[in-house]
Amino acid sequence: MNEWLITEGLLGDAKFYTGEEWRTRGEQLHDEALLVLMIDGSALHTILNYGGDTSEFDDLIESFGFWYELGYSWSVGFYPAEDYDFSPLQCSYASKLKDQRWQRKAKLIKERAGYSCQDCGATAALDAHHCYYANMRHGFEPWEYPLGAFRALCRTCHEARERAEIRMRAFMASLTKTEMDSIRDALGHAFYWYQPGAVSAFLSALGPEERHILGGVDHLRLGRTNAN
After folding, report:
1. Domain check: are 18 and 66 in the same one?
2. Number of folded domains that form the chain
3. Which of left, alpha, beta for 121 (phi over 0: left; psi -120 to 50: alpha)?
4. Least crowded by CB within 10 Å, which of 86, 175, 195, 213?
5. DSSP per residue over 11-33, as a string?
6. Whole-angstrom distance, CA of residue 69 vs CA of residue 71
7. H or E stretch including 84?
8. Tens digit of pLDDT for each residue in 123-175?
9. What's the angle, vertex CA 64, arms to CA 50 and CA 73, rounded to 5?
10. Does residue 190 sit in the same domain as residue 124?
11. 3-class DSSP state for residue 226?
Protein backbone atom coordinates (compact mmCIF):
# COMPACT_ATOMS: atom_id res chain seq x y z
CA MET A 1 0.00 0.00 0.00
CA ASN A 2 2.89 2.32 0.71
CA GLU A 3 4.03 2.11 -2.92
CA TRP A 4 0.48 2.80 -4.13
CA LEU A 5 0.25 5.89 -1.94
CA ILE A 6 3.55 7.15 -3.36
CA THR A 7 2.55 6.41 -6.96
CA GLU A 8 -0.77 8.21 -6.53
CA GLY A 9 0.88 11.18 -4.83
CA LEU A 10 -1.11 10.57 -1.64
CA LEU A 11 1.57 9.67 0.89
CA GLY A 12 2.74 13.12 1.95
CA ASP A 13 3.63 13.00 5.65
CA ALA A 14 1.58 9.86 6.30
CA LYS A 15 3.19 7.32 8.62
CA PHE A 16 2.44 3.69 9.44
CA TYR A 17 2.39 2.25 12.95
CA THR A 18 2.12 -1.38 13.93
CA GLY A 19 -0.65 -2.08 16.40
CA GLU A 20 1.90 -2.40 19.19
CA GLU A 21 3.61 0.88 18.29
CA TRP A 22 0.26 2.64 18.15
CA ARG A 23 -0.86 1.38 21.56
CA THR A 24 2.31 2.71 23.18
CA ARG A 25 1.14 6.20 22.15
CA GLY A 26 -1.79 5.89 24.55
CA GLU A 27 -4.39 6.94 21.98
CA GLN A 28 -8.05 6.26 22.74
CA LEU A 29 -8.94 4.81 19.32
CA HIS A 30 -7.76 1.87 17.18
CA ASP A 31 -6.82 -0.25 20.21
CA GLU A 32 -7.49 -3.45 18.27
CA ALA A 33 -6.08 -2.36 14.92
CA LEU A 34 -3.35 -4.49 13.40
CA LEU A 35 -1.93 -1.45 11.61
CA VAL A 36 -2.60 2.28 11.86
CA LEU A 37 -1.86 4.94 9.27
CA MET A 38 -1.53 8.52 10.48
CA ILE A 39 -2.62 10.63 7.51
CA ASP A 40 -2.33 14.20 8.78
CA GLY A 41 -0.52 16.14 6.05
CA SER A 42 -1.41 13.54 3.41
CA ALA A 43 -3.73 13.99 0.44
CA LEU A 44 -5.41 10.81 1.66
CA HIS A 45 -6.70 12.85 4.61
CA THR A 46 -8.66 15.05 2.21
CA ILE A 47 -10.03 12.10 0.24
CA LEU A 48 -11.23 10.18 3.29
CA ASN A 49 -12.62 13.16 5.17
CA TYR A 50 -14.15 15.28 2.42
CA GLY A 51 -15.83 12.85 0.06
CA GLY A 52 -13.14 11.95 -2.48
CA ASP A 53 -13.16 8.81 -4.61
CA THR A 54 -12.05 5.98 -2.32
CA SER A 55 -12.89 3.08 -4.66
CA GLU A 56 -9.29 2.12 -5.47
CA PHE A 57 -8.21 2.50 -1.84
CA ASP A 58 -11.19 0.43 -0.66
CA ASP A 59 -10.48 -2.31 -3.17
CA LEU A 60 -6.77 -2.48 -2.32
CA ILE A 61 -7.47 -2.88 1.40
CA GLU A 62 -10.11 -5.53 0.72
CA SER A 63 -7.71 -7.37 -1.60
CA PHE A 64 -5.41 -8.06 1.35
CA GLY A 65 -8.28 -9.30 3.52
CA PHE A 66 -8.65 -6.17 5.65
CA TRP A 67 -11.18 -3.46 6.35
CA TYR A 68 -10.49 0.02 7.67
CA GLU A 69 -12.08 2.79 9.66
CA LEU A 70 -11.29 6.38 10.41
CA GLY A 71 -10.65 6.99 14.08
CA TYR A 72 -9.54 10.54 14.40
CA SER A 73 -9.80 12.55 11.20
CA TRP A 74 -6.06 11.98 10.85
CA SER A 75 -5.83 8.24 11.58
CA VAL A 76 -6.92 5.09 9.78
CA GLY A 77 -7.05 1.72 11.52
CA PHE A 78 -6.78 -1.54 9.59
CA TYR A 79 -8.37 -4.76 10.81
CA PRO A 80 -8.39 -8.32 9.44
CA ALA A 81 -11.69 -9.34 7.88
CA GLU A 82 -13.55 -12.16 9.56
CA ASP A 83 -13.37 -15.54 7.82
CA TYR A 84 -10.65 -14.35 5.41
CA ASP A 85 -8.16 -17.10 4.60
CA PHE A 86 -4.68 -15.65 5.14
CA SER A 87 -2.86 -18.96 4.69
CA PRO A 88 -0.28 -18.95 1.85
CA LEU A 89 -1.45 -20.67 -1.31
CA GLN A 90 0.81 -23.55 -2.28
CA CYS A 91 -0.31 -23.91 -5.86
CA SER A 92 0.53 -22.81 -9.38
CA TYR A 93 -0.12 -19.33 -10.73
CA ALA A 94 -2.72 -20.78 -13.09
CA SER A 95 -4.55 -22.27 -10.12
CA LYS A 96 -4.49 -18.92 -8.32
CA LEU A 97 -6.30 -17.35 -11.27
CA LYS A 98 -9.22 -19.68 -10.50
CA ASP A 99 -9.45 -18.34 -6.94
CA GLN A 100 -12.67 -16.44 -6.20
CA ARG A 101 -10.64 -13.44 -5.03
CA TRP A 102 -8.99 -13.15 -8.43
CA GLN A 103 -12.27 -13.74 -10.24
CA ARG A 104 -13.83 -10.87 -8.29
CA LYS A 105 -10.88 -8.60 -9.04
CA ALA A 106 -10.84 -9.44 -12.75
CA LYS A 107 -14.57 -8.78 -13.00
CA LEU A 108 -14.16 -5.38 -11.35
CA ILE A 109 -11.32 -4.44 -13.72
CA LYS A 110 -13.47 -5.26 -16.75
CA GLU A 111 -16.46 -3.42 -15.30
CA ARG A 112 -14.38 -0.28 -14.75
CA ALA A 113 -13.24 -0.48 -18.38
CA GLY A 114 -16.85 -0.65 -19.58
CA TYR A 115 -16.19 -4.17 -20.89
CA SER A 116 -14.04 -2.70 -23.68
CA CYS A 117 -10.37 -3.24 -24.41
CA GLN A 118 -8.47 -0.30 -22.96
CA ASP A 119 -5.94 -0.38 -25.79
CA CYS A 120 -8.11 -0.79 -28.90
CA GLY A 121 -11.72 -0.48 -27.72
CA ALA A 122 -12.79 -3.96 -28.84
CA THR A 123 -15.61 -5.63 -26.94
CA ALA A 124 -14.37 -9.17 -27.52
CA ALA A 125 -13.40 -11.51 -24.66
CA LEU A 126 -11.24 -9.57 -22.21
CA ASP A 127 -8.34 -10.42 -19.93
CA ALA A 128 -7.36 -8.55 -16.78
CA HIS A 129 -3.69 -7.82 -17.41
CA HIS A 130 -1.12 -7.08 -14.69
CA CYS A 131 0.94 -4.15 -16.02
CA TYR A 132 3.59 -4.89 -13.41
CA TYR A 133 4.40 -7.31 -10.62
CA ALA A 134 5.85 -6.40 -7.25
CA ASN A 135 9.08 -7.94 -6.01
CA MET A 136 8.40 -11.67 -5.78
CA ARG A 137 9.88 -11.71 -2.27
CA HIS A 138 6.81 -9.80 -1.13
CA GLY A 139 4.70 -12.79 -2.12
CA PHE A 140 1.78 -10.75 -3.44
CA GLU A 141 -1.08 -12.79 -4.81
CA PRO A 142 -2.54 -11.88 -8.23
CA TRP A 143 -5.44 -9.97 -6.63
CA GLU A 144 -3.27 -8.05 -4.14
CA TYR A 145 -2.61 -5.11 -6.46
CA PRO A 146 -4.30 -1.72 -6.86
CA LEU A 147 -6.76 -1.33 -9.70
CA GLY A 148 -4.34 1.05 -11.41
CA ALA A 149 -1.94 -1.87 -11.87
CA PHE A 150 -4.28 -3.49 -14.41
CA ARG A 151 -5.68 -2.99 -17.87
CA ALA A 152 -8.63 -4.80 -19.41
CA LEU A 153 -7.37 -6.07 -22.76
CA CYS A 154 -8.65 -8.20 -25.61
CA ARG A 155 -6.57 -11.29 -26.30
CA THR A 156 -4.78 -9.70 -29.27
CA CYS A 157 -3.81 -6.57 -27.34
CA HIS A 158 -2.88 -8.65 -24.30
CA GLU A 159 -0.31 -10.62 -26.27
CA ALA A 160 0.99 -7.49 -28.02
CA ARG A 161 1.27 -5.55 -24.76
CA GLU A 162 3.26 -8.30 -23.06
CA ARG A 163 5.81 -8.10 -25.88
CA ALA A 164 5.86 -4.29 -25.65
CA GLU A 165 6.41 -4.40 -21.89
CA ILE A 166 9.35 -6.77 -22.34
CA ARG A 167 10.90 -4.33 -24.82
CA MET A 168 10.29 -1.46 -22.40
CA ARG A 169 12.01 -3.32 -19.56
CA ALA A 170 14.90 -4.13 -21.91
CA PHE A 171 15.18 -0.42 -22.72
CA MET A 172 15.21 0.48 -19.02
CA ALA A 173 18.14 -1.87 -18.49
CA SER A 174 20.33 0.82 -20.06
CA LEU A 175 19.22 3.45 -17.51
CA THR A 176 20.29 4.15 -13.97
CA LYS A 177 17.72 4.27 -11.20
CA THR A 178 18.07 8.06 -11.11
CA GLU A 179 17.48 8.31 -14.85
CA MET A 180 14.39 6.11 -14.63
CA ASP A 181 12.95 8.22 -11.82
CA SER A 182 13.69 11.41 -13.72
CA ILE A 183 12.06 10.16 -16.94
CA ARG A 184 9.01 8.85 -15.09
CA ASP A 185 8.52 12.14 -13.27
CA ALA A 186 9.05 14.17 -16.44
CA LEU A 187 6.55 12.10 -18.42
CA GLY A 188 4.03 12.25 -15.59
CA HIS A 189 4.33 16.03 -15.60
CA ALA A 190 4.07 16.20 -19.40
CA PHE A 191 1.03 13.90 -19.52
CA TYR A 192 -0.76 16.16 -17.06
CA TRP A 193 -0.56 19.09 -19.48
CA TYR A 194 -0.48 17.30 -22.84
CA GLN A 195 -2.02 14.19 -24.33
CA PRO A 196 0.37 11.19 -24.39
CA GLY A 197 0.23 11.05 -28.19
CA ALA A 198 1.27 14.70 -28.43
CA VAL A 199 4.18 14.14 -26.05
CA SER A 200 5.30 11.12 -28.07
CA ALA A 201 5.05 13.07 -31.34
CA PHE A 202 7.05 15.93 -29.79
CA LEU A 203 9.86 13.62 -28.71
CA SER A 204 9.89 11.81 -32.05
CA ALA A 205 10.17 15.13 -33.91
CA LEU A 206 13.25 16.29 -32.00
CA GLY A 207 16.44 16.60 -33.99
CA PRO A 208 19.64 18.64 -34.27
CA GLU A 209 18.07 21.64 -35.98
CA GLU A 210 15.79 24.41 -34.76
CA ARG A 211 13.07 23.36 -37.20
CA HIS A 212 12.88 19.98 -35.48
CA ILE A 213 12.27 21.61 -32.12
CA LEU A 214 9.65 23.96 -33.55
CA GLY A 215 7.92 21.07 -35.28
CA GLY A 216 7.80 19.17 -32.01
CA VAL A 217 6.32 22.16 -30.20
CA ASP A 218 3.55 22.31 -32.81
CA HIS A 219 2.53 18.80 -31.77
CA LEU A 220 2.29 19.94 -28.15
CA ARG A 221 0.14 22.93 -29.06
CA LEU A 222 -2.37 20.59 -30.68
CA GLY A 223 -2.33 18.14 -27.80
CA ARG A 224 -3.13 20.21 -24.74
CA THR A 225 -5.24 18.51 -22.09
CA ASN A 226 -8.13 20.08 -20.20
CA ALA A 227 -5.64 21.04 -17.48
CA ASN A 228 -4.32 23.81 -19.77
Report:
1. yes
2. 3
3. left
4. 86
5. -TT-EEEEHHHHHTTT-SS-TT-
6. 6
7. none
8. 989 999 999 887 655 668 999 999 999 999 999 999 999 999 999 999 999 99
9. 25
10. no
11. coil
